[in-house]
Design brief:
A: Rossmann fold; five-stranded parallel β-sheet; 8 helices; 18 strands; elongated; B: 262 residues; alpha/beta; Rossmann fold; nine-stranded mixed β-sheet
Chain lengths: 315, 262
Amino acid sequence: MIAAVLVEHRDGVVAQPSLEALTLARSVGVPVAVWLGASPSAEAVALLGQYGATDVRVVDAELRVVAHAADALRAASDDAELVLVVSTFVNKEIVTRMALATGAGVVVDAAGAERIDGHIETTQTVFAATWNVRTRINTERAIVAIRPNTTTAKVADERTAPTVTTLAVALPTAREAIVDIARVAPPEGIPLAEAPVVVSGGRGTGGDYTLVRDLADLLGGAVGASRDATDEGWISHEHMVGQTGTTVTPALYVACGISGAVHHRGGMQASGTIVAVNMDPDAPIFDIADFGVVGSLFDVLPQAIERIKAHRAAS
Amino acid sequence: MRVLVAVKFVPDLQSQRSFTDGLVTRVAEDGSMNELDENAVEAALQLVEAQGDGEVYALTVGGPDAVAAVRKALQLGATYAIHVNDGAIAGSDVFGTAAVLAAAIRKVNAEAPLDLVITGMAALDGLTSMLPTALAVELGWSQLTFASKLEVAAGEATIVRHLPDAYETVAAPLPAVVSVTDEANKPRYPNFKLIMAARTKPVTVWTLADIGVDPASVGAAASRTTVIDASPRPPRADRTIVTDTGEAGTALADFLIGRGLA
């Protein structure tokens, strides 16, 4: 059974969640990588091979229009029983179009997928990560959008040199036209959705993210923020963690000066370990924290940073 | 300008949300119009107000309680409300729901052409964000989704999409299905006059037969996916909350070091 993985890449560099998806694909079937956009470098192809891709199927075209990307992905995965994509807003749109064209069943925001009795079953958390749900895809063809950080990426035991095939896909005229693209600079360091550690600051920072950034840097993580903080203009929208921003599931989430409104919790509640620092002992964030400090982040974070540095220096 | 807003009845975010027999539990007292749909209603009202004339239709699909969603849209200023209520719809997946919505929209469109269908960016229960795209495909209309800005002029709609790598400006001819994000506008609060008026405004109720949808094509039996198990997650064990008396930063660091996280 073929399990096709749509590869996420930026400036030709493969994103970590795609390696996670390839790892997952290997446990279900024969992984095949689908690459939309300018052809991958030899390094990128080799990397996909390390994670088990037997084929790399390339559609070398500008595919920003959702309908075009859906047609290209469909053409490149027409023999796949399972298509895996990373769960992003754009990919959810692409797979919706593809599902309507192919009759495939779709689960998005999944945390895992396996094949049981000839059907793909997925696991996921819902309702702000307060419930676990298992879903069966009833159709022969299945599409699963998988959340970053839900599978540990592992190189394959048997590494192959993938066959690279470039497909010519006839793209019909779409109603939509992209009339302008204003590029956003890539984030410094690790993208929020993919980070193993996220340190977030909210209203309690008063707009000063120095300590939040320092702790994030020290722990090798990304900086997040609450809706309050992005609305204040203290930090850009790309940093917003929450149901309408970025949903994160890092191994460690540190909430600094964030009360934990339901919209924020929905975007981080499935994180591995949750730590919270907040002045208000009644802040709802403490209801879901593994370790909480009622106190000022301006007192607590510098002390924690010093302690971690001292520990590292001593070991 | 004739705009239809598709709104959804969802469990209140602050309520104890749950599953019953693999379906989201929906009860009137703990439910309301999806909060992100307020941005959709606002976008529709602004377009009509800017034009000086037009109508805003609010449409929902769901059981008897779902009428609360279109009532809320009326309170915000929608002109007409339509509720597709048919027992056969229960358990539909996004494709079934899109097919029902599209059939109802075609019926409205047949009376007098619509310019736009506007939705929220996601429903805060399922959060899949798939419906707007599915609706555009079902209708064969332009897909202008995830808009943080929306402008309509000369038979064309133009949106800005805020994506991780770029701000994308996309233009397409009307009619179009537009989904707006919570960045697109600040929804208004319903005023007393509209709240009172909304109480007596009629809500048109249609069944699947009224909109020409075969009941066998929707509902749980036609769904491409089935929830086979749903259980509340156990609360986090061994939680520690300390009040800082001068040592809590060190305690926090030791907690992280102890878990191998620092």
